Structure formats: C-alpha cells, structure tokens
Amino acid sequence: MGGRSLAAQVFVLQVVIVLLLVVAAVVALLLQVRHDSTQEARNRSVAVAETFANSPGMVEALNSPDPTAVLQPRAEAARKASDMDFIVVMNTDGIRYTHPKPDRIGKKFVGTLQPALDGGVVVEEVNGTIGRLVQAVVPVKAPDGQVVGLVSSGITTEHVGGNADRQLPLVLGSAALALLLATASTALVSRRLQRQTHGLGPREMTRMYEHHDAVLHAVREGVIIVGGEGDLLLANDEAQRLLDLPPDAERRQVLELGLDRETARLLASGRMVTDEVHLVGERLLAINQRPTHLAGGPAGSVATLRDSTELRALSGRAEAARERLDMLYAAGVGIGTSLDVTRTAEELTALAVPRFADFATVDLFDAVLDGEEPQTQGTLRRTAVSGIRKGAPLYAVGDRIRFVDSAPQARSLGTARAVLEARLSRAPGWRAQDLERTEQVVEFGIHSLITVPVRAGTLILGVVSFWRSERPDPFDPDEVALAEELVARAAISIDNARRFTREHGMAVTLQRSLLPRTLPEQNALDIAYRYLPAQAGVGGDWFDVLPLSGARVALVVGDVVGHGLHAAATMGRLRTAVHNFSALDLPPEELLGLLDELVARIDQDEAGDQGNAAVSGATCLYAIYDPVSRRCTIARAGHPPPAVVHPDGRVEYADVPAGLPLGLGGLPFETVELELAEGSRLALYTDGLVEDRERDIDTGLEMLRTALERSADGSPEETCQAVVDALLPARQGDDIALIVAHTRALGAERVAEWDVPVDPAAVGEVRSAAMRQLARWDLDELSFATELILSELVTNAIRYGSGPVRVRLLRDRTLICEVSDGSSTSPHLRYAAMTDEGGRGLFLVAQLTERWGTRYTPKGKVIWAEQPLP
C-alpha cells in the first residue's frame, strides 16, 4: 500500500471492504445452517426413535423367539418412511436386532447406552461409518415400566443440510454481483482521482507539499517557473526579493514585469544556461535555467537565481583565511611530535614548504642543541633545510653561521622581531653577509625573504628564514604575521625539546654514575648483563653483583617506579643501601626487610617536602649463590620471578613468594632455596623486558622462556643478546636490566673441613691438618699466617663460643679460613693497652688478612678471613 498511488489505494480499500462484507455474510450463513442442521437432526432422531419404540407390539416382538424376523421389516419400513439413515433395535446389552446392513445384526451397538437403560434419552454426535451423524437412543419399556430394549435412530448432518446447500449458490451469486457493482463504481472514482493526483501516493503528496513550501519560503536561492507561453507560474520569496517583483506577478507575462531587457528575454526564452551573470538593479545575479519538457514534462522552464555580488569579493579573502587556519592547525598537530630539537626544526621546515614558502631554513644556537640556555651572541648552526627543489646555494645543514649585523637574521635576533626583505636584490644589508653566496641565491631565483626569531619567553633560541622563488610577487605584511604565528607555535615545541634534552642528559648522567661500570671479579658465576635506558625519560632500574664471604656471590635486580631524576636518585640510595646491608652478610629476607624500612623512611621524609614526590613503589630481587653447596637462596619484594635454565635446556620460573613491594611494610619476606646443578643459569630481569603497552606480562614471560630455551647452548653473553633481540620493543618506554649468570661449583678438591672438639688441646691438631692441606695446595707461603689466624679464631670459638666448632678452608681467588660455632656472640676488634695481657688476636688477624668478618647462620655464626694467594 505504501508504494501505490492514492487512487490505487482508494480502489483497493473499497474492494477489500466489499469482499470482507461478502465473506462475513457467507460465513454467517454457513454457521447458521450448520447449527440449524444439527438441531434438526437431533429433533428428528429423538422423534423417530421414540415413535418406533412406542409403536404397538414392540414389547411382544422383543420377547418373541426371533425379534429380528419381526422387527427388521418394520424398522426398514419406518427408516425409509422417515428418511433416516438407520433405525436400530437392540436388547439391553446393546446387541442389534435390526440394521440397514444385515451383516451388522447381532453385533454390539456403538454409542452411549447407560442413560437409556436408566429410562432416559441419549442424543449424541458421532463419526460413524457413513459420516458425521446425530443419533438418539431411547428405551423400550414394558407395561410395568421395566426397560426391555433400546431403539436408536440416526441421520447424517449432510442429509439434513441439503436445503441450505441449495441456497448457498444463490447467496454467492448475489455477493459476486454486489462485488462487481462496487468494483465498477470504485474504479470510476479511482480513475478520476488518479488523473487529479497524477498517480502519487499519500507520502509523495505530503512530501511534495513540504518541498513546495520549502522552495517557496525557506530556500535562500531564487526559483522561477515560467510556462510555455512566457507567463510566470511560480516565484518563491527569494526570487521576488532578488528581482523586486510586484505582488501580482504570477500569471503575468515575464516581459511585462519591469525586469531589464536581457534578463526578461532570458527568462521568457526558456533556453538552457549555466551560471550566466546578469546585472539586475544593483545586484549581480548568476542564473541557471533548464527547460521542463526535456524530461517529459509540460512546456516551460525552471530558473534559479543566486546573488553573487559579495561572493567574488569574499572568496579570495575566505580562501586565504582558510589556508592560513589550515596551516596553523597543521602546525599544532605536526610540529613537536617528538622531544628532539633537530626533529622539531625539520617538522617546521617540512610544513612551511611549499604551502607558505619555497625554501625554509632553521638556524639554532649550539647551546640549544645541547639543551642549554643560549646567549644572544655567538654562532648558529644550520639545523634544518627544506626546499621545493635541490641545489639551492643556501648554507647546508650542520654549517656554523655567524651573521653580520646588517643581515636580516642578525636584526631579527637583536630586535626579537620579524624582518621582511621584499626584494633581496635591493637589500644591501643581506648581500653584505656573503657577496658571492648571495649573488648565487639571487641568480637561483630566490627573490624575497622573511626572518623570524625563535623566541621562547625571554630566550632567543635561533632564527627561521622563509625564502620565495617561484611566485613572482614578494612576501607582504600579512604573510609576515602568518610567519610569526607559525614560528611562535614551533618555538614552544623547540624549547620543550631543549628542556627535555637538558633534563634527559642530566638524568642519564646521574643514572650511569649510580650504576656499576664493571663487574667485580669472582669465580662462582660467569655473568653477562644488559642495561638499556628508556628512549624517553630515565627510570630507576638497577642491578648489582656483590661478592660475599665464603666465595658466595649476591645478585641484585631492582626497579623504582617512575621516571626522571627523582627515580634515578632514589635508585642510587637503594643501591647504596644494598651494598651496605650485603656487607653485613645478611640473609635475603632480612636484607629486604631492612630495605623495606628504608623506603618507608624515605617516603616519610619526602612527604614533608612538597618539592619532592614520595617513592611510589620499588621492587627488588636478592639472590645469594654458594658455589660450595651449589645452593641459591632467593627472596623478592614484588619483583618478577627469576628464570632458571637447567643444563639440559629446560627453563622454569622459580616459585619464589612475591612479597609486597618495598615501602608497604607489614609482612615479612620469604625465601626459597634452590639446588642448582653446575652449568645451570639464572636470568634476573626487570619488568621493562617482559611488559609494555603492546603485550601483557604473561606474553612477555612466555617469550622470555622461548628465547632462553633457544640460546641455552650459547655463552651468557650470547644468551643476553638473544633475549634482548627477541623481547626489545620497537619503542622502549621503560628501562631494561638483565643479568644472565652461569653457575660454577667449587669442587671438593678446593675445600677442606674439620670438626673441632671443644677442647683447647684440639687447636694444635687443627693447625697441623691445615698445614698439611696447604702443602697439598702448594700454598706453603701462607702457612705461618694461616696458623696464627686459625689459632686465634679456633681458640676464641672454644673459649667464648659453644659447640659444635668447625673449621673450613676454601681455595678460591683467595684463601678463605672459616671457623663456625653455635654461639651468636661476635668478637670485636679493639686496641689493647700496653698492660693488657690479651685483646691482640683479632688485631693480628686483621693485619694478616685482606679482609675478615662475621656472618650469622640459623645455628650460630661464622668468622672468616681472606688472604690473597701468592
């Protein structure tokens, strides 16, 4: 319906209504006929059954020896006389005595019998073998009222409804005639309506009216429709205003409306024109006209009128303003995409050429390139050059330039204002810079120049020069203003890049000064490392390798959250603290506990100083490897777990409890002790290696596992490089620290141990055993000093300590003497007075050894001393 014309819709609607009425009448008639047929069948069935049941001799016939012989002829005669489909006589058990079909006699009747046996009448509708029928069952009563038999009569409903079926064709014929008459009358009305509406539907008619109204009153362009005879059929409000038409203009000849001759002739002619300009009064109108009969319409034409009086004057200025705004917008978006001074200068010249100038150069003071504040006097360096073609005789990138005082660039730097040299061939001050080069520039075709200082606040960072060669007209004052605004926007980005260069350089210098420059010498681990600072900003990642007593080595990796100088300084404080705490030979969990307290104190100190931010978080992993037992004890504070590469190439991450980051406090740290086969590898790293904006930490850990597996056969140095190559992101946003440590073992031939009885007499036996061991190691030169050291340390352990007492000699890069006992009391070095009898033993030990100290164990303490090997 929505796509048909209005006439078609009216026609279809009327036909549908007539059809609905006819269908409703037929359905009602059929329902009524069906109801009447059923009711008539019920009445006839009951009447015939009761009449036959009460007929004379019925009781005697039922009681006769052969009821069928008596009743069958009577029942058939009655059935035919009453026009019933069947009359059945049966006994009280429902066994038939009569039936129109003899083969059914003697069989049980199908129907409801009990109400009739009780003396009532049963009427029901059933689907019998002869179709849908209505049957009635009545009792046959003896004179005493006893039911001695039953009589059933039935008739199909189609036999009863025969009259109605004969009437139905008459009804349908009448309905068809009514439909035909209604259709004919509707067609006449619809045909007339279609001619008047041109076959349009309601939506099209509504839309046509809305468009017509909009054209008349809302369109800001004049519209005129002229008939084939030259009479004005329609003029909207804008056309009446532009042509100054009289109020009664419609239906009048166009030539009689008082228009100028050329315009009136054009509108009356109906010829096709496009943007033909006519002067109508004081207005300059652009007229577009098309004939209407080309598309099968009536004769005539349609013309549109557009006032272009101010358009030409404004178009030039609008286009220039649009280009200017577009360039400034592009400057805001395209300049300063990186915090690099040179790159920012290149972005400025790339934007200016060729949209504003044919060549553009940027000259900056050397101090700006280094991130420092420049002086207004001094040489500049050509930082960026862009041009529409190559071969321009301008200074090249990297050239150092000192402009003479009369040069436009020097005047811009001195006055902090833009300078326009409209005609370079007539600018002696500019030509005085370099007579030979300036002559080449003019011969090359460059004829106009604007110089603008790069100013950031009170600082003058350099000067930008815009050169013109292709366009013959020189730069004008309006273009000077645009150049100043363009350079002002770029100056902010250049100054930001300068400040970043300075701060980044300071931070990197500080960071590198706080990190280890070389690794200490030790034999327990073969170590390779990588430290990669972030591309933007400086982070707080650090690492350390710390030799401990007993040939052990500590590995440390940490990360201070954040970037900048504060993070680097905090990293330095934490690294220094780890150095100091490791000198105490503390277990990993105790060392992290002290670091946690230190970070908490730093936070408290920084919180009182508004100029500094508190440490927002720090993580650390501390591992101690003992080459004698091949055990590695690890604890971590919120740091990623270490990776263990077994000698067979299998990689797993050590299950070390994570712990809270440093500074949060409240919970102790836990340790895990791993037994590493010789040739295993430990990989310690910071989160910058496995996590960035483009991948989560789980993906990074899996990539690290794969890289370690593939490089398991290489050296630690090769493994480091393979890991970095596989995981380094395209743009590194965080510091990366990585340590790969290949484990070694101190063999049994380099270790000697003895249990010492808690008896002063045992000291001599220990000395003798130690001397024999030194002889086997070809270290006889150290026998005297070792004998004194062992005597003092073992004697102190027996006298002041408690059992068990053990002595161990280790031959590593030094000779290490260790004496352990079960006491936690530690001896102290002091200077004995001249009158003191004792107190000089530890002083002698300190003088004879390279270093000595005490470390505590869960079962007591160990006093150790190291002597350099000869």
TrEMBL record:
Main subcellular location of this protein, as a coarse class: membrane
Transmembrane segments: 6-31, 168-189
Domain GAF: 340-504
Cited Gene3D superfamilies: 3.30.450.40, Histidine kinase-like ATPase, C-terminal domain, PAS domain, PPM-type phosphatase domain
Pfam families: GAF, HATPase_c_2, sCache_3_2, SpoIIE
Subcellular location: Cell membrane
Keyword Kinase annotated: yes
UniProt domain PPM-type phosphatase: residue ranges: 522-743
Topology in membrane: Multi-pass membrane protein
InterPro entries: Bact_Sigma-Reg (IPR052016), GAF (IPR003018), GAF-like_dom_sf (IPR029016), HATPase_C_sf (IPR036890), HATPase_dom (IPR003594), PAS-like_dom_sf (IPR035965), PPM-type-like_dom_sf (IPR036457), PPM-type_phosphatase-like_dom (IPR001932)
CDD domains, per database record: HATPase_RsbW-like
SMART domains per UniProt: GAF (SM00065), PP2C_SIG (SM00331)
Alphabetical keyword list: ATP-binding, Cell membrane, Hydrolase, Kinase, Membrane, Nucleotide-binding, Phosphoprotein, Transferase, Transmembrane, Transmembrane helix, Two-component regulatory system
PANTHER family to which the protein is assigned, alphabetical: STAGE II SPORULATION PROTEIN E, STAGE II SPORULATION PROTEIN E-RELATED
Protein name: PAS domain-containing protein/anti-sigma regulatory factor (Ser/Thr protein kinase)
